[in-house]
């Protein structure tokens, strides 16, 4: 997989990355179709879910992700938790662009077989803010990755953010920075609703 590392020194970095490059993200490595960041036809939706997802949220989340797919919306996520992976399966049945942000470096990453076709079809972009030495995912790297996704997206759909989790903290930070967050109306999501997320 051919990668490109982008820094503030680049003469023509993608416009979406310019506000992100700096102290928090000194360099961002990408692989796949970089033009996905340049397309303005559809806003990017960040997709998040904590590892433990209450059962009451599963079907509403699948319905909403299916709607995003049918609308051709570009979706960005780490696609790491079990629920996020199930959502990725739904999105891969569409034709819209997908942005995957692993919680690790991608310089020597092997592309899973199920992602080879969307990569060949130029509808996939893989993005990472991590150095080549950061080869193994960790909770710390996942929180940093989630911050990148939240700030890269135009709005964020948070299926569930567990109380006192790193994801909830990132979501609150992004809302404080002016990013719109949307969640499913459910008592399990009261923490993020109280923090200012809109409900569906």
Structural class: alpha/beta
Query: What is the end-to-end distance?
Result: 38 Å
CATH class: Alpha Beta
Oligomer: single chain
Number of helices: 6
The total strand number stands at 9
- Tally of discrete structural domains: 1
Low-confidence stretches: none
Record the strand order, biggest sheet: 1-2-6-5-4-3-7-8-9
Strand percentage lies at 15-25%
If you consult CATH, what is the topology?
A: Rossmann fold
The helix-strand sequence is EEEHEHEHEHEHEHE
CATH arch. level architecture? 3-Layer(aba) Sandwich
- Which of globular, elongated, flat, extended, rod-shaped describes the shape? globular
Helix content: 25-40%
The major β-sheet equals:
9 strands, mixed
Measured on Cα atoms, how large is the radius of gyration? 16 Å
Q: Taking all residues together, what is the mean pLDDT?
A: 94
Walk me through what this model shows.
The protein is α/β, with parallel strands linked by helices. The chain has a single domain, classed as Rossmann fold (3-Layer(aba) Sandwich). The chain contains six helices and nine strands. The chain has helices spanning 58-70, 82-92, 113-120, 139-152, 166-176, 190-194, and strands at residues 3-7, 27-32, 44-49, 74-77, 98-100, 124-128, 155-160, 180-183, 198-199. A nine-stranded mixed beta sheet has the order 1-2-6-5-4-3-7-8-9, sandwiched between helices. The mean pLDDT is 94.
């Amino acid at each position: 997989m051919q990668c490109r590392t982008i820094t503030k020194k680049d003469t023509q970095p993608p416009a979406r990355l310019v506000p992100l490059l700096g102290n928090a993200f000194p360099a961002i490595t990408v692989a796949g179709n970089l033009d996905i960041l340049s397309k303005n036809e559809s806003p990017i939706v960040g997709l998040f879910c904590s590892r433990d997802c209450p059962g009451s949220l599963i079907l509403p989340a699948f319905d909403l992700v299916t709607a995003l797919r049918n609308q051709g919306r570009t979706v960005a996520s780490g696609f790491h938790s079990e629920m996020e992976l199930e959502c990725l399966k739904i999105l891969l049945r569409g034709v819209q662009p997908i942005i995957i942000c692993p919680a690790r470096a991608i310089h020597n990453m092997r592309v899973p077989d199920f992602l080879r076709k969307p990569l060949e079809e130029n509808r996939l972009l893989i993005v990472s803010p991590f150095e080549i030495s950061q080869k193994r995912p960790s909770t710390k790297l996942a929180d940093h990755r989630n911050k990148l996704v939240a700030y890269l997206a135009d709005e964020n759909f948070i299926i569930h953010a567990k109380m006192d989790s790193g994801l909830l903290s990132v979501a609150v930070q992004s809302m404080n920075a002016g990013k719109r967050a949307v969640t499913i109306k459910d008592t399990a999501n009261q923490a993020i609703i109280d923090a200012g997320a809109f409900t569906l």
